Amino acid sequence: MCLAIPGKITALYEEGGLKMCKVNISGVTQSACVETVPDVQIGDYIIVHAGFALNKLSTEDAQETLELFRQLAEFDAQIRAEQESTE
Amino acid sequence: MELLKEFRNPIHARTLLDELHRITTRPWVIMEICGGQTHAIMQSGIDQLLPPQIELVHGPGCPVCVTPLELIDKALAIASMPDVIFTSFGDMLRVPGSHGDLFSIRAAGGDVRTVYTPLDAVKIARDNPDKEVVFFAIGFETTAPVNLMSLKQAINLGLTNYSLLVSQSLVPPAMHAILSSPQNRVQAFLSAGHVNTIMGMWEYPPIAQQYHIPIVVTGFEPVDLLNGILQTVRQLEAGRYAVENAYSRVVTLEGNQPAQRMIEEMYEVHDRQWRGIGMIPQSGWRLRPAYAQYDAEKRFSLSHIVTQESDICIAGQILQGLKKPHQCPAFGKECTPRNPLGATMVSSEGACAAYYNFARIREGQ
């Protein structure tokens, strides 16, 4: 139920009084309502639940998170090397 | 999108798992609230890769599972009426009521239709002006905006034949109920990232402070889940209890404020029954009196509903994290996804269905 999937906006339009978009989700184009995410533009990423955009997705934040994982991997490798050298 | 595939990258998963194994020194019980996360954990096998001291218990965040039996019975009664088109998310159709389910109503000639979004139910209402179209508006905070948006659209289009059968549950009151239970074992929560996408994080610090419980907002990809678990265990090991965000690409502190304003305008908080658990104070939303004519419970005459729950099913204890599905004597025997005794065996978010589909049949598997 609370599953929501990221996709990229390819078109914006209006239907039945609602702000809508076409969104490419893993190669499949679907419609989604963007009424409560008003400042979206074509090319933005959104997270879609039951045909409704919950929010925008920040690619900068995604990149920052991945960078933390890379730093953690380096840190772990360092610790392991230190442990091995003291053993 | 290549960037987002990184959140399924086994290299990152390995890094996070190694770190978890390095820092975990004591047993910890962590509850993932959302049933979607339960399924993702089982599917990716995360539960089997964690340090043995970490136990994940599965929370009540399955809207299909907690929709009260009385409301299922009301849905069956409405769907049986002539001149009604009853619309619903697909998961609800096999949820057992006291006598039968929505599939059995459809088999008996009722017009029951599944929709991908309630906005499609509005289209059905527009195309069928001589029918009453009802949408079964179940869900947690995540689904509230789209449920309400459908009603808003119907009103804007001047439709008078559209109504909602509302079963909206709220996560923070359920967290209070779990933590204040004398049987509680939960020491930390993975908070359901998509609930927080709508509601933000501002409701959670008082809960963390009151119960000294870490709460980490967590996403749904395997690497997101491991990252949420790692942030949680770091707090537990350090004796901290803060609200943290391990899903920052989607969740902000304030959440989706236009959606929150719409919810505030159209819904009011009330005491709600949770199937298998009982009444949790102030744990649901219902339509405000100004929208009474669009409230299917008021619109249709629904007397003589007498509920009867399965006397074998232990879904309530499973939803509170007190028991695991394989501890139920009916699991995989009398109760299977094809023939469910309880809603937890039906839903793609139910813990019993997850255990059944991903073969966690016995203790330790």
Helix and strand arrangement:
The complex is a heterodimer of chains A (87) and B (365).
Chain A: E1 5-15, E2 18-25, E3 28-33, E4 45-49, E5 52-56, H1 59-86
Antiparallel strand pairs in A: 1-2, 1-4, 2-3, 4-5
Chain B: H1 2-5, H2 10-23, E1 28-34, H3 35-44, H4 46-49, E2 54-61, H5 63-66, H6 69-79, E3 84-88, H7 102-107, E4 111-114, H8 118-127, E5 132-139, H9 144-156, E6 162-169, H10 171-179, E7 188-192, H11 193-199, H12 205-211, E8 215-218, H13 222-238, E9 243-245, H14 257-266, E10 267-274, E11 278-287, H15 296-299, H16 315-319, H17 351-357
Parallel strand pairs in B: 1-2, 1-7, 3-4, 3-5, 5-6, 7-8, 8-9
Antiparallel strand pairs in B: 6-11, 10-11
Helix pairs in contact in B: 2-13, 8-9, 9-14
Count of discrete alpha- or pi-helical segments spanning 4 or more residues of chain B: 17
Q: CATH fold name of the largest domain in chain B, please?
A: Rossmann fold
CATH superfamily of the largest domain in chain B: HypD, alpha/beta domain 2
Quick check: average pLDDT of chain B?
A: 94
What's the story with the biggest beta sheet of chain B? 6 strands, mixed
Overall residue-averaged pLDDT value of chain A = 92
Main beta sheet of chain A: strand number and arrangement? 5 strands, antiparallel
Proportion of strand residues of chain B: 15-25%
CATH architecture title of the largest domain in chain A: Roll
Share of helix of chain B, binned: 25-40%
| Biggest chain contact | A-B, 36 and 60 residues
So what's the overall shape of chain B?
A: globular
Number of distinct helices of chain A: 1
- If you compute it from the alpha carbons, what radius of gyration of chain B comes out, rounded to the nearest whole angstrom? 21 Å
CATH class of the largest domain in chain A: Mainly Beta
Number of domains of chain A: 2
Structural class of chain B: alpha/beta
Helix proportion of chain A: 25-40%
Poorly predicted ranges of chain A:
none
